[in-house]
Amino acid sequence: MKAIYWISTLLLSAILLWSAIAYLINKEMIEGVKALGFPDFFRVQLAILKIIAVLLLLIPQVPLQAKEWAYARTGLFFITAIVAHIAHKDGWGITFLNLVFIMVLITSNVYLHKLLATR
């Protein structure tokens, strides 16, 4: 149970960190966010919020309520990405990928609660 929690949480954190860094330095990603119709400040804001979410999820001493907010915000990131890519008429691959990310998020959250219930 602990292994599933940590694997899913580390995978989720890697996804968030990769996208946050890409939002800040990858020219294709920066242009892609603009092409979706989002203002430039939104890209930077998302990157910062994703980094904060990673810290909240990975640091064991963070209170459960803060972790829950991080999970909720992260789910909102993925849902927003799905809506934006569908509205932009992008391929279904990116939507499927975001659905996989949501499943990783749910797995991490469910196993966090299972671990806490066994304490």
From TrEMBL:
Q: Which InterPro entries match?
A: DoxX (IPR032808)
Task: Specify the protein's topology with respect to the membrane.
Answer: Multi-pass membrane protein
Q: Please name one Pfam family that this protein belongs to.
A: DoxX_2
Q: Which GO terms describe its cellular component?
A: membrane
Membrane-spanning regions, if any? 41-59, 71-88, 94-112
Q: Where in the cell is it found?
A: Membrane
Could you list this entry's UniProt keywords, alphabetically sorted. Answer: Membrane, Transmembrane, Transmembrane helix
> Superkingdom, according to UniProt?
Bacteria
The name of this protein is DoxX-like family protein
Q: Which organism is it from?
A: Aquimarina spongiae
Source taxonomy: Bacteria, Pseudomonadati, Bacteroidota, Flavobacteriia, Flavobacteriales
